[in-house]
Amino acid sequence: MKREEKNALSRQRILEATLREFSEKGYAAASLNTVCAENGISKGIIYHYFADKEELYVICVAECFNALTAYLTQALSGISGSVEQRLRGYFDARLHFFAENPLFLGIFTDAALNPPAHLISRIAETRRHFDELNISVLTGLLESAVLRNGISISAVVDDFRMYMDYFNLRFKDALVGIHSPEQALRKHEERCHRQLGILLYGVLGDQDENR
């Protein structure tokens, strides 16, 4: 095996092990000592390829957001219908990505909802293209809808982004102790669809519908 190939395999092995550690425990609780002990990797090898725990975390976060952005970009080409149907399709695409890539779910929720303070600017840069895609998609959908007076598209976009991050956190919690990820996904999709309807239309029905 050539040295370049051996180096690439060593780097990939370290990244896979640290990705699992960060996904399960988050940045704060993750330990390179644990990575070494559980995967038979020496700390010297880790520091040969990577500067420190911070660099490894940022690389894992970048892998997560790059993969998610590429997945959503492809999924969006097949989504059509009303504003609600397209928003549902976008929510569902995000959920299915994390169902297919559960380790990325832990990375995403930690970076989005509990980012290390000293890494916020670096994380913001790694997720820039993802944020731009989110803003573009949601703005495009809402521009074709009629909003209530006093509500701006930019404000609604910010709210949707916050809710989507929260939904992903709830999905991560739902997977804990569940033997069937598919069952957890179906239940979470139902919850997201219900919450999406509330976000779009509120909780009060038309009185005429109840007569």
Automatic annotation (TrEMBL):
<dbReference type="Pfam" id="PF00440">
    <property type="entry name" value="TetR_N"/>
</dbReference>
<dbReference type="InterPro" id="IPR050109">
    <property type="entry name" value="HTH-type_TetR-like_transc_reg"/>
</dbReference>
<dbReference type="GO" id="GO:0006355">
    <property type="term" value="P:regulation of DNA-templated transcription"/>
</dbReference>
<protein>
    <submittedName>
        <fullName>TetR/AcrR family transcriptional regulator</fullName>
    </submittedName>
</protein>
<dbReference type="InterPro" id="IPR036271">
    <property type="entry name" value="Tet_transcr_reg_TetR-rel_C_sf"/>
</dbReference>
<feature type="domain" description="HTH tetR-type">
    <location>
        <begin position="8"/>
        <end position="68"/>
    </location>
</feature>
<keyword id="KW-0238">DNA-binding</keyword>
<dbReference type="GO" id="GO:0003677">
    <property type="term" value="F:DNA binding"/>
</dbReference>
<dbReference type="InterPro" id="IPR023772">
    <property type="entry name" value="DNA-bd_HTH_TetR-type_CS"/>
</dbReference>
<dbReference type="InterPro" id="IPR001647">
    <property type="entry name" value="HTH_TetR"/>
</dbReference>
<dbReference type="InterPro" id="IPR009057">
    <property type="entry name" value="Homeodomain-like_sf"/>
</dbReference>
<feature type="DNA-binding region" description="H-T-H motif">
    <location>
        <begin position="31"/>
        <end position="50"/>
    </location>
</feature>
